[in-house]
Design a protein that fits this description.
The chain has 293 residues and is an alpha+beta fold. The protein folds into two domains: 72 residues, no CATH class; 152 residues, no CATH class. It has a five-stranded antiparallel sheet with strand order 6-7-5-8-9. The chain has a two-stranded antiparallel sheet with strand order 1-2.
């Protein structure tokens, strides 16, 4: 069947073609030649330069992203048409545009490793004893420093002095009078047995012994001046130049014999218990009476 030139063919003489304004021609360049045809009536008119540049950027980007292998097609656009160029055999493929990465390559970096170790047990927490630490038991007293033990003896003596008013002028049983550094009998278990088993007693041991006497007899700690001596530091004997911490049982007796009778019953060692007169504090009228046997 013979071909009939359509209204859009170059040789058409259709009135519809003559009614249209002359469309711009588009040139298609191929590997075997070029031909020129009028643009069909339903085709879009050539874009303005701004649109052409946008198309150029978009198409060029597609070309860059699809480059690879042995086949590469460069597509570009201009103001009046498109141009396709086949890549010649053996030609190298243009490298895509390089864009710097914001992060370093992971191929050259060592892979970080994480080492898991078992948790070590924490050492026991030891609460330091402050300078004003107190002790309520003999064991606690032994854990104090010398200074702390002396301070605690002083606190106990202050409390004991406040309980002496009802005892003024009476006789009491004195169950201990000791200074630091002398040989004493306080064992076993803070219960004297007649043998001086501690060669040089410490402030901590004196405090521990006084706390044990308080637990056994209700004894209170006092300074020598609270019982009538003129000073707390001894001026003679084994405690010369030292404070002799004293412990008494606050039970009043009308004479020394009654106080010593208590000692015979409850504190057998003769050197550890004797009758003591509670005189006016600091009066210098102190008096002690020992047991005869």
């Amino acid at each position: 069947m013979g071909s009939t030139a359509g209204p859009y063919s170059p040789g058409s003489s259709s009135s519809a073609l003559r009614a249209w304004p002359d469309p711009p021609n588009v040139a298609y360049e191929t590997a075997i030649g070029a031909e020129t045809r009028p643009m069909p009536p339903d085709a879009e008119a050539p874009r303005q330069p701004g649109y052409a540049r946008a198309a150029f950027v978009a198409v060029t980007l597609v070309a860059a992203l699809t480059a690879g292998g042995t086949g590469y097609v460069a597509v570009s656009t201009g103001l009046v048409g498109f141009k396709q160029t086949a890549l010649a055999p053996g030609a190298s493929v243009p490298a895509p545009a390089h864009r710097e990465s914001t992060s370093a390559s992971t191929q050259d970096e060592p892979v970080p490793t994480t080492t898991t170790t078992s948790a070590r047990p924490k050492p026991p927490t030891v609460t330091p004893v402050g300078p004003d630490a107190s002790a309520s038991t003999s064991d606690e007293a032994l854990g104090l420093s010398t200074l702390q033990a002396r301070q605690e003896l002083g606190h106990l003596a202050d409390d004991g002095a406040s309980n002496l008013a009802p005892l003024a002028g009476s006789w009491v049983a004195q169950v201990s009078s000791k200074c630091e550094g002398i040989r004493v009998d306080i064992e076993p278990g803070w219960q004297p047995d007649g043998t001086k088993d501690v060669a040089s007693v410490t402030a901590q041991q004196i405090l521990a012994f006084h706390l044990a006497l308080n637990a056994r007899f209700g004894a209170i700690t006092v300074r020598p001046t609270a019982l009538g001596t003129s000073r707390d530091v001894a001026t003679r004997g084994v405690c010369r130049g030292k404070v002799a911490w004293t412990s008494i049982v606050p039970n009043p007796f009308h004479d020394s014999a009654a106080a010593n009778a208590w000692c015979d019953t409850y504190q057998p060692p003769r050197d550890e218990c004797q009758a003591r007169l509670v005189a006016a504090p600091g009066s210098g009228h102190t008096q002690t009476v020992g047991r005869s046997s």
